[in-house]
Design brief:
The complex is a heterodimer.
Chain A: H1 17-27, H2 32-39, H3 43-50, H4 58-68, H5 72-78, H6 83-93, H7 97-105, H8 113-120, H9 125-135, H10 139-154, H11 157-178
Helix pairs in contact in A: 2-3, 2-4, 5-11, 9-10
Chain B: H1 6-30, H2 46-53, E1 57-61, E2 69-72, E3 79-83, H3 97-115, H4 131-138, H5 152-169, H6 173-177, H7 179-189, H8 196-210, H9 214-223, E4 227-230, E5 233-236, H10 238-243
Parallel strand pairs in B: 1-3
Antiparallel strand pairs in B: 2-3, 4-5
Helix pairs in contact in B: 1-2, 1-5, 3-5, 4-9, 7-8, 8-9
Classes of the chains: A mainly alpha, B mainly alpha.
Chain lengths: 179, 244
């Protein structure tokens, strides 16, 4: 299937990620707790996602998509799972003492979120190493991933969504092949 | 605390009927056939009923530290907000967290069930109409400020929402199913004396089983006519217990 033929996500306009999760959960007749258990996420976390109170982590979306049997691409698109949000989530996850120490080593002002996000586009070594650690990959792989993310940033939102769909389809396919 | 009057009892019964219908609707929606005897305690399905049967938004969030929760009818979908910092609300530092959350949510559900459509927004306020013990549950502010900002109509609605919470969480089969309650009934029938300490133990057991606060359980047992409470000294109320 060519990119041009890729169908648009069937998501009503102005649907939020929370609405989307709720709709799919209710279609499956699952309670929030059952969904949280199935996705191995905390009850309060899923509750906050359903109410659009919480920025979703990408790995949480993957778990939720699997638990709900819902298309991950649509969830990522709804979550504005675009680079800035993903980076910010990555950053949040690395707001650990080690992560902060690593960031301090690069001279980044960790108190200034916007400045930090801008800095992240340059991918300092400490962040690449954190990314590699998170993804269970080598630093070389992380560098390539960073390049890909930087390319995504330069695309239009529509192009970016197409690429994210392709990536998630590929990932799901790989996952299926492994299992 | 006197035995509740007929009007109050009617409110409890009405709330309990509503609860039973909501629980039936919940299991019908889940497509599960659950026998009456094996139904979970009402607190255990409270979140699900709020979200998936009543179809309210249930939001755990930061609220000002003078309130545990609020019901908001200002948007299309009624919203129940629960203060996730409730343990920082003055007077609640040592509260039983799950029990307090359940009591708060049931109270706010009471507003939704009774008040939705009456064009009320951001209803809040607390009542101390349940006496000393209930004041611990319901009134985070200083006693001398209780109800100071409530109109008589708002007081009535608050009172009814607390009655709804009691009816939903405790009244009827949930209380009757508690082992500790059944033992108290046995003692009452046998005319046995039960010490205040033992009654407090029973209160805590019932609160644990129903997933509510001990203070709320105490008030509900008083309303059921099972016990009397004289400044924290509990007594079994044999005559009224037999009527309960």
């Amino acid at each position: 299937m060519t990119e041009e033929n890729t169908p648009e996500p069937i998501v009503p306009e102005r649907t939020t990620l929370g609405d989307y999760i709720r709709r799919h959960r209710r279609e499956k007749r699952m309670s929030v707790r059952e969904l949280a258990d199935k996705a191995r996420l905390s009850y309060f976390y899923v509750s906050k996602l359903e109410n659009d109170q919480q920025e979703p982590a990408v790995d949480a979306l993957i778990k939720l998509a699997s638990a709900l049997d819902a298309p991950l691409g649509e969830m990522l698109a709804l979550s504005e799972g675009e680079t800035a949000a993903i980076l910010e989530n990555l950053l949040e996850r690395h707001r650990t003492p080690e992560g902060l120490r690593a960031a301090r080593g690069t001279g980044i002002d960790v108190g200034d979120r916007q400045a930090l996000l801008a800095e992240l586009r340059n991918w300092p070594p400490s962040l690449l190493s954190a990314l590699a650690d998170l993804a269970g990959a080598s630093v070389d792989d992380a560098e390539r991933l960073a390049e890909a993310l930087n390319s995504l940033v330069r695309l239009s939102p529509e192009e970016r969504r197409r690429w994210i769909r392709l990536i998630t389809t590929y990932a799901a396919d790989e996952e299926g092949r492994r299992t | 605390m006197s035995f509740p009057n007929r009007g109050y009892r009617a409110l409890l019964q009405k709330s309990a009927l509503d609860r039973d219908q909501l629980i039936r609707d919940y299991f019908a929606w889940k497509d599960e056939d659950v026998e009456i005897a094996s139904r979970p305690v009402p607190a255990a399905v409270l979140d699900d009923i709020i979200r998936d049967v009543v179809e309210c938004k249930l939001i755990y969030c930061h609220l000002p530290l003078d309130r545990l929760g609020e019901a908001d009818f200002s948007s299309e979908v009624p919203t129940i907000r629960v203060n996730e910092d409730f343990q920082e609300v003055p007077g609640f530092a040592n509260a039983n967290p799950d029990g307090l959350l359940n009591v708060t949510k049931a109270h706010e559900l009471g507003h939704v069930r009774r008040d939705h459509g009456k064009q009320m927004s951001h209803l809040r306020g607390q009542m101390s109409m349940f006496g000393e013990t209930a004041a611990v549950i319901s009134c985070p502010r200083r006693r001398d400020q209780d109800n100071a900002n409530l109109t008589p109509a708002e007081r009535k609605r608050e009172f009814e929402a607390w009655a709804y919470a009691e009816g939903y969480l405790v009244f009827g089969w949930p209380l009757a199913r508690c082992a500790a309650y059944q033992q108290l009934q046995e003692s009452a029938r046998g005319g046995r004396t039960v010490s205040s300490d033992r009654l407090w133990r029973a209160v805590y057991e019932i609160a644990g089983e129903l997933q509510i606060t001990p203070a709320f359980a105490t008030v509900a047992l008083e309303h059921a006519g099972m016990i009397s409470n004289q400044g924290g000294v509990l007594g079994l109320n044999p005559q009224l217990a037999l009527l309960a």
